[in-house]
Amino acid sequence: MIRKHNCHFILLCFGLILLSCNDKTVIDKSTDLNIITNPIISYNDTSAICGGEVQSGIETLILDKGICWSRNPNPTFANYHITAGSGHGKFSRTITVLDPNTQYYFRTYAISSKDTTYGNIIGLITKMSPQYIFNPKLKYGTVSDNEGNSYKTIQIGNQTWMAQNLRATKYQNGDQIPLVSDIQTWLKSTTPCQAAYSFNENGDSLSKYGRYYNWYVLADKRKIAPSGWHVASENDWEILSNYLTANGYNLNENATDKDIAKALAAQSGWKYSDNWSVGDLQFWNNKSGFSALPAGILNNQSSLPYESAYWWSYSEIQNFNCRFLSYKSAILTGTYVSQFCGLSVRCVKDE
2-125: what CATH class? Predict the structure, then answer.
């Protein structure tokens, strides 16, 4: 059984580092326990095989033994740990909840009737993993807007969603959506306008994050979605949320909890967090194929990079006018923002 507790993030380069508090085994003289942590010889981007041995006199009762680990240099039982049962002897466990390219520290532990004793510390940096934006296990379609921009699409339940943010610069009839290239002009605008992510017209950045649009673009009758598609409405977001919740895409895989954010977020690109949030264990993200990236929001207090994703939720009558994901949350949240803000847009195929 693996238990998870708070830990801190340290970003280091790719590779393997072996560290040790003491190359010799650690002996607890009060219980005469001799505990060894073996070198880690097999690991990849998200898992490692770690083992050791608990040695003691027969008079010492070992209630539990196992491996604990943390991003901190001094892991204890209070951090992550996995049990290897009771008694003495050699043991080995595969740990499968690691983040890629991350420094970890491991050591064995043994719990006796008197106290908890630890072995020597072994450190490693997990390997880099492929930087998946889209879920490689799912099949995606494509759709193009009237400018020729191509977008991946994904079917989720009975809906077909864009798996990328819109980056159109024209309405369906070919009229140009006014471009704004600085925040001061944007904040003063009360008419339709659009802007590139971080005001950067770089093609790679646009393909990855899309464009920002204010509310007035969505309200324009000339429409910005590709033909046969529409900007996601309040009802579309509710259908998506309900489907994911009812079909095991939430953390507890039950039919009630709304913690579906990890199923929507891409497997990389988010700021690190913990407690099973979007930013935690990102290789577990994107089960739905929605592939959300943290493009943030454009307003007078623009969000920091890699922290959040906001999309307009367009309807004539509604409680919310947007949905957002945060790196430190497991919930797809509905809220209301000012119409002058710049948000991303996802489109849904017409029924």
Answer: mainly beta
